Amino acid sequence: MLRALLVAVIGAAAISPLAGLTLAGSHDAVAGESIVCADFLDAELAAAMEQADWEQIEISGPFGWLAERGGLDCVFGLPQSDFGWWTGYAPAPDEEELRTFLADAGFADGPATAEGAVLVQPGPTEPTPEFDQVCLLSQGLLVCEIGSAEPSTVDSLVRTRNALLAAGAVAPEPTAEPIVEADPAPVTEREVAPAETPTGGLADGPAAPSTLSGLRTPAEVDLRAGIVACTIALTLVFAAILAFPGKLMESAIQNNSERVSTFWRPVTALAARVGSWVARALRRWPRWILLSIGLVVAAVISGFVDPEFGFNAGSVRMLASSLVALVVDGLLVALLVAALARRWGLGGGIGVRLAAGSFVILAVSVLLSRLTGFVPGVIFGVIIAVTLPAVVGGRDQLRIAASETGYLLGIGVVSWFAYGALAEPLTTSGGIIDRFVIEALSAITVIGLSALPVLLLPFRGLPGGSIFSAGKIAWGISYIAAGSLFMVVLLPFPGSWEQTSAAFWVWVGLFVAYALVAIALWFILSRPRADVSEDETGPPADLPVGGGASSYSPDP
After folding, report:
1. Which three-class secondary structure state does DSSP give residue 424?
2. Where would you find the membrane-spanning parts of this chain (predicted)?
3. What is the pLDDT of residue 502?
């Protein structure tokens, strides 16, 4: 199936020789030489991969158990993509022994074919569906790939077998000494990454990696012109979707504020009573204690971005890394902005406080990351706001907005490059302090860059609203810059539409849903109410009105 997709990329293009494909370990196939991954490709598939800019990815694939039997485990794909071709082979001198081993590992007979025995290990369906392992046992070789038990997959296995036989892959004579094998494990689509992802999980110990260790480094970013252009173009579309429907909705709500407040009055009244009670209860507590409690609660919520977060030593270490990131992106940025506001002489009463609504956004972002399997996740951790005087001019609001978003952007980028420089050496050492530092840098990057697309929304009360009021072009440039960086670091644009991950489509769906809801609200609120009489709406618009309707006197 994947082979057909790749071949379709080149259409009627000329077939390139295998030697033209730049693959790690490639060589001209000669019988008797050791087999390398390039030997899995016939001329047509090699040309298709070359045309599509695919290459061999040096990571461990799902067929390590084949390599232990004297074969190979190979992964081909596009760097920075979550989609690839997993394949492998092993010599099969004793086919009966191998079939017994595969049966014990969960393989069952697949579709019948004259080419040999097809064996399939179904992938699990929970918590997310995974592809099957499909193998062909034929002519002294066992050839496997990830896919489904379809005729196209069997055809692909046959062509791979033929390419290996042509390259000199032969089954050695069976030996009397048994070989101890490891059970093959199913693999999910998301396990193909641009770099080798850490193994294990939080339950494996305090130094075990979490989802935060899956952040891409700057060296792994795909900066080809097509990818960069598509990223900027898509961000521009998202910015337009946010700006125009959003401002229509905002203006409709403002023009119908009494109508909206009447509709939501039961909810707002209850929220006001609860908020008043909470404020009175917390008034006796020092502010620093409230901020500390809020940061710890936010760190706990952020931890659930990892499926294994819970009562284990690894989760405690992850909690500490997330807490450091929240202090930097939340508290430190708020204190820096407050210090600037005092320096600009904006008046008294400047300080910092917890932003209760941000906890809701944080929980929603973590939930979406879990539902989509998005790695390293989206974490909105800006939970501390700056308190300003009641009256602040438009120019000062713009300076405050630019300062807050600028600090987050700068800290996020610096942390990302620091993460890229330290990830490999600290991961190799494997200590708890090293893992703490790596994931603290990752969390600072994720939290800072995840907050920008939300904070720059063009609504009143958000930094983006102040920037939008100052100038639509300035807001557009700011949003495109922040949005493009968010996509490059956290949600890279796929190399082709066939390689698009679920997380990418979820974000596209969220933007589209937002636009549809905004337009629907604008349409509903802009329609005249049928239950409003003319006396309630006032006299016709073309009649001159003085101090009131009673002051109007028609000409004789």
Report:
1. helix
2. 223-244, 288-305, 317-338, 350-368, 374-393, 405-422, 442-461, 473-493, 505-525
3. 54
Exposed / middle / buried, residue 175 (Cβ in 10 Å: 0-12, 13-18, 19+): exposed
Q: What is the mean pLDDT of residues 20-47?
A: 60
In terms of average pLDDT, the best of 37-46, 136-145, 256-265, 467-476 is: 136-145
Q: Where do the DSSP E strands lie in 68-173? A: 72-77, 84-91, 108-109, 117-121, 132-138, 141-147
Residue 446, C-beta contacts closer than 8 angstroms, at least 6 positions apart? 212, 215, 325, 376, 377, 378, 379, 490
Residue 76 pairs in a beta bridge with: 56, 85
| Tens digit of each residue's pLDDT (9 = 90 or more) over 163-209 | 888 888 765 444 444 545 555 544 444 333 443 444 456 777 788 88
Q: How far apart are alpha carbons 535 and 537 in whole angstroms?
A: 6
Kindly state the tokens that stand for 507: 């974000």
Distances (CA, A) of 529 to 150, 261, 263, 523: 59, 15, 14, 12
Phi, psi of 386 (to 5 degrees): -95, 130
Residue-by-residue DSSP string for 222-280: ---HHHHHHHHHHHHHHHHHHHHHHHHHHHHHHHTHHHHHHHHHHHHHHHHHHHHHHHH
Distances 173 to 94, 95, 161, 182 between C-alpha atoms, Å: 9, 12, 19, 22
Instruction: Identify the helix (H) or strand (E) that includes residue 324.
Output: helix 313-326
Residue range 375-393: mean pLDDT, rounded: 74
Average pLDDT over residues 461-484: 85
Strand order in the sheet with 132-138: 55-56, 72-77, 84-91, 141-147, 132-138, 117-121, 108-109
How much is the mean pLDDT over the chain?
74
423: buried, middle or exposed (CB in 10 Å: 19+, 13-18, 0-12)? buried
Q: What are phi and psi of 172, to 5 degrees?
A: -70, 165
Do you find a cis peptide bond into 307, omega within 30 degrees of 0? no
> Using alpha carbons only, how large is the chain's radius of gyration in Å?
30
Predicted TM-score (pTM) of this structure: 0.56
Q: Report H helices in 82-150.
A: 95-104
DSSP reduced 3-state for 113? strand
Ramachandran sector of residue 53 (left: φ over 0; alpha: ψ -120 to 50; beta: rest): left
Strands 84-91 and 108-109: unpaired
DSSP H/E element including 399:
helix 394-429
> Residue 377 — very low, low, confident or very high, per pLDDT cuts 50/70/90?
low
